[in-house]
Amino acid sequence: MLVNILEIVVSVLMLVLAFFAINSKSLIKSVMFLSSLSMLAVVGFVLMKAPDVAVTEAVIGSGLVTTLFVFTLLSARKVGN
Fold first, then answer.
1. What 3-state DSSP class applies to 48?
2. 46: number of CA atoms within 13 Å, CB side?
3. What does the alpha-carbon distance between residue 6 and residue 12 come to, in Å, rounded to a whole number?
4. What would the pLDDT profile of 6-50 be if each residue is shown by its tens digit?
């Protein structure tokens, strides 16, 4: 019962963060919302008892992709100035 409630809460939060990531005016805020969304996906995978997928999502989805996006945005700002 508790797991079902947690799954619903995580799913709703993921939808809200996806909406914020799409509608954010600032690119860096959008990247941070996307990173938070990815971390909630990790929680969802743990709740579904898929720890291998959760670890992969945490390392690649949250860590690597977010770092790549942030460095790309910073590089684009340097070139633009």
1. coil
2. 11
3. 10
4. 999 999 999 999 999 999 999 999 999 999 999 999 999 999 999
Q: Structure tokens of 32?
A: 């941070």
CB 34 within 8 A of CB 66: yes
Could you tell me if 14 and 37 are in contact, meaning their C-beta atoms sit under 8 angstroms apart? yes
C-alpha 61/C-alpha 53 separation (Å) is: 11
Instruction: Give the whole-angstrom CA distance, residue 61 versus residue 11.
Output: 17
Predicted confidence at residue 80, as pLDDT, reads: 67
Separation CA 2–CA 74 (nearest Å): 42
